Amino acid sequence: MGRAAQALSGGMDLVLRALVLQGIWLLGTLAGGLVLGWAPATMAALDAATCAERGEPIRWRRAAQVWRGSFLRSQVTLGLPGLFLVLAVAAALSGLLPVGLEVVLWLAAGLLLIALAHIPDLDRRYRLPATRVLGRSLVLGLAQAPTSLLMLAVLALWTGIVLAVPGLAPFLGAGVPLLVIHHLVDRSLDRNEDLLSRPADPPDGYRARPPRGTAAPPRPRPAATA
């Protein structure tokens, strides 16, 4: 009986958390006019999920600060990949393309969806250049292929549930996926700390500059020929 009560309490806590995340995401999306609002709203909602997972209370003022602080950057890190995803799906569903090209577009859409799911938590933990976030997110998603496939399966299942029960959409439509994605991605980041913190390899022929005030090492001279 005690375990059942504990499980029920934990389940109710997750539902309430998802409801709060849904509220943050909806208000943030509407505040930015849908098109420009969903990206910073996603960043704010996942930051709130992180606070809740640490046992901290979710504060709306903090969510508003995260929304404002990430507004411009998230248009590049999340907005552009989201636009590419929409264009790929729209082209694949148009019925005007050859079957082979449609398959390629669906594959690209799947990869973009996996990368998009990893971007907010990755960008929150590592302050990478905005242009490198998508590539690192895709690397993480491919490195954790089982987790990525599980994520896609959960998203597909939840989409089916919402389509079957449309009344869930205004209350939990985005909150549940955000909660699940954060849980899975945060653990993927922990497992791939070395991969993500490692600096990119320099291009061929690159020579690092010596620190200021130190002499550069001499260049090797070609061997004298007789």
Brief characterization of the structure:
Helices cover 73% and strands 0% of the residues. It has ten helices and no strands.
Provide structural commentary:
This protein is mostly helical and 226 residues long. The chain has one domain. 73% of the residues lie in helices and 0% in strands. Helix 1 packs antiparallel against helix 2, helix 4 packs antiparallel against helix 5 and helix 5 packs across helix 6. The protein starts with a helix and ends in a 29-residue tail after the last helix. About 6% of the residues have low confidence.
Task: Give me the secondary-structure topology.
Layout: H1 2-31, H2 38-53, H3 60-69, H4 71-93, H5 99-125, H6 130-143, H7 145-164, H8 169-172, H9 175-191, H10 193-197
What is the share of helical residues? over 70%
User: Could you describe the largest sheet, including whether it forms a barrel?
Assistant: none
Low-confidence stretches: 199-212
* Overall residue-averaged pLDDT value: 85
Derived structural class: mainly alpha
What global shape is seen? Answer: globular
What's the tally of helices? 10
Q: CA-to-CA gap between the ends?
A: 92 Å
**Count the strands?**
0
Which radius of gyration do the C-alpha atoms yield? 22 Å
The domain count comes to 1
- Please report which band the strand proportion falls in: under 5%, 5-15%, 15-25%, 25-35%, 35-45% or over 45%: under 5%
What is the chain-wise order of helices and strands?
A: HHHHHHHHHH
Jot down its keywords.
globular; 226 residues; mainly alpha; 10 helices
